[in-house]
Amino acid sequence: MPKSKVRKKSAYTPPPSTLQPGAARALAPSPRWYAPLMVGLMLIGLLWIVVYYVAGDDIAFMADLSAWNFAIGFGAMVAGLVMSMRWR
To answer: Where are the transmembrane segments (predicted)?
Structure first.
């Protein structure tokens, strides 16, 4: 039985890109105030929840907010976490 011919595959060439190589690395670093604000938001959110648990009944505006205190605390922490993903 005759042996079949082996077909050569052409080498893969990626499509031409409009971006220059290394363009992703050219992003500027974050400003100096970015990291302290990021950490501050996370700590403020944590402290808000801790203060609500410890003395929430004694503080008038926290007692009025009731369960919204969790939204405020976790919202501040999530904002800090989102900022940490954009930090350079």
So the answer is: 33-55, 67-85
